[in-house]
Amino acid sequence: MTRVLAVATFVYDFLFGDDWRLALGVGVGLGLVVLADRVGLGRLWWLLPVAVLVTLVASLRRASRTS
Amino acid sequence: MAMREVLVFVGVFCACLVEAVEALTIVLAVGLTRGWRSTWEGVAAGVGVLVLTVAVLGPALTSVPINVLRLLVGALLLVFGLQWLRKAILRAAGLKGLHDEDAAFAQETDMARQAAAPTGRTRDWYAFTVAFKGVVLEGLEVAFIVVTFGANQGRLPLAASAAAVAIVVVVAAGAAVRRPLSRVPENSLKLVVGLLLTSFGTFWAAEGAGVDWPGGDAAILVLIAAYSLAAFVCVVWLRRGRALLAVTPSVP
Description:
Chain A is 81% helix and 0% strand. By secondary structure, chain A is mostly helical. Chain A has one domain. By secondary structure, chain B is an all-alpha fold. Chain B starts with a helix and ends in a 5-residue tail after the last helix. Chain A binds chain B through residues 14-19, 22-23, 25-27, 30, 33-34, 37, 43-45, 48-49, 52-53, 55-57, 59-60, 63-64, 67, and chain B through 71, 75, 78-79, 82-83, 85-87, 89-90, 93, 95-96, 140-141, 198, 201-202, 205-206, 209-214, 219, 223, 226-227, 230, 234, 238, 241-242.
């Protein structure tokens, strides 16, 4: 059980690192790109970089408040 | 080499350099304290696991349809890149301590001295395990970067050779000085890797989702420039916030 937990912790750390919200932000950003295309707004190339920057700044802001 | 290939080489080389420096610190501490035979065996086993990971995952990924591959690999690289970028920015702004190879070396040496000595002529399992874990844990992320960069570009040998060159450079430097490479600017390299992974990740993930980038491949350079500017602004912003907090008198 301890080994399973250790492996699960390693995989979580490996994928999500110090802030799981970064992965969430990437997922939401990509979802918005697909959604925009589906509702007829077109394939908006700028949407993902904007989502990435917003996610990064929010994560840094949170980190600066807690440190 | 085309522009994309040069950037892939630089990204993998820098990522591998950073992780290899950290692995070298662990290996040196164990080897110098406990002896080299079991330590080398641990390193060889660890490198074997990483080579196997690249050899199995690389060709397997190339059989995935290109748009699915770009979407998945791009998203993964983007998540990795943002983690590296976040850490590097926080360190550059002074909100997170810099990785200190000398301190890590002292700590590993201390633990290696305290661990029980092997009996007789048997393998020193402590040295083997620590060296193996050090190489695998530090190298796994690089193995993923090699596989994803390589598979997406159809340039697995190029990505793998960039990693191999970085390992040779670090091992040669470590063998020459026989101490941790604490003068390597790890945080600057981390920042470069973070910027490249985030830029390529954005480019590929969006392409995988059906986006056509204006300017084609040149959009990668624009993304690198935009993210670099954003990282610089973030460092300045966080440093100012920290300075302001330091001079603001506390309310009694």
